[in-house]
Amino acid sequence: MPLFDPESIRSDFPVLAKLIYLDNAATSLSPRQVIEAQVTAEYHYRANVGRGIHRLSRMATHQYQEARETLGRFLGGEKGTLAFTKNTTEAANIVARGIHWNKTDRIITILQDHHSNLLPWYRLKNDHLIDGIDVVDSTAGTVSAEDIESCITKNTRLIALGHASNVFGTIAPAKEIAEICKDKNILLHLDGAQTAPHLPLNLEQIGCDYFAFSGHKMLGPMGTGGLWISPDVTGDDVPAPLCTGGGMVQSVSGTTFTTVSGPGRYEAGTPNVPGAIGLAEAARYLTNIGMKNVADHSAALARRMIRGLAEIPGVRVYTPEDAPLIGTVSFTVDNVHPHEVAYFLDEAAGIMVRSGEHCCQPLMHALCLTGGTVRASAYCYNTRDDIDMLIATTEEIAGMVK
């Protein structure tokens, strides 16, 4: 396992000399290596891919395809189809709008999931393309394979599962759920926006059918991400492209057309070539420091947060300590709006956290949290000192309203 030293990692992120960044569940920082990879692409081979014969186009095409292969290895999904997207949201919509649905189909979703893994499926019901949505309660912060299985009916076609909660930071048992899905011939879509940055993944071993992720949460550029489709997906379960146009077409005759095979069919128009190259560099960076190291470090910092915050009178922690965790913890301070807590953390100690509903309004309504929560999310470049400063400053805030 590679040596892991958060202090040395921090040197690749200049802004960390000025502040404590704990908003990684929303957007991570990018190291200088990722920025430099994008700049190199812009300076030395800015060109469209797959269409030109000149040297810049050939070089850009090579780097773009190499980036795809790098991401496939990083995710443990070399045998599947990996299409570049803008983000997790676009990837989920490709699946939702691209599958040939039957009107009797039902979908299972999880109450705690991000709107990006709820609304694409809700729209299918609202557009009368499927029979309905079954929502698994997860107000306690976790979801089990048994919870999912109890909601399955003979018409369940797909389960849309957040691999980890962006509110609680808890990790779902994806492999167990995938085994249930295979046994019952049900599709499994995993929202991996929070796990691609934090966990060593092997999508082929997990057994999901679709996996969506975002680059900006895993040290990569904004506006990058991907959709992975298992090689086992066939027939009407292979999503049709969300967009049509240049780049994804094989032939056009009259008003009919055929698409190219493979991931290119999902990448209509000019792709974000420098972004894909930067995202691949982010994957290499994470691989070099070791994803098992990242997972262990993030989970340890989360548990340190939970224990420290839970000891403060007037602070309520919503993330369960005894569950598998990434680096994310949600909490509130009695009689202080989460936005005020976040503002004070920034002004008093230069601590960046997220506050509000975290694009999880159904969960917040179920928890009766009208202002949402404060969410602190740690990553590979955070230290114990960062967490201790968060705890100490939160204690100061709680003490001010006694």
UniProtKB/TrEMBL annotation:
Residue stretches making up the Aminotransferase class V domain: 20-390
Alphabetical list of Pfam families matching this protein: Aminotran_5 (PF00266)
Source organism, top-level taxon: Archaea
Enzyme class: transferase
Organism: Methanocorpusculum petauri
Entry cofactors: pyridoxal 5'-phosphate
Family note: Belongs to the class-V pyridoxal-phosphate-dependent aminotransferase family. Csd subfamily.
Catalytic activity annotation: (sulfur carrier)-H + L-cysteine = (sulfur carrier)-SH + L-alanine
Record lineage: Archaea, Methanobacteriati, Methanobacteriota, Stenosarchaea group, Methanomicrobia
UniProt keyword terms in alphabetical order: Pyridoxal phosphate, Transferase
EC number(s) on file: 2.8.1.7
Identification of the protein by name: cysteine desulfurase
PROSITE patterns, per the entry: AA_TRANSFER_CLASS_5 (PS00595)
Listed PANTHER family: CYSTEINE DESULFURASE, CYSTEINE DESULFURASE 1, CHLOROPLASTIC
SUPFAM superfamilies: PLP-dependent transferases
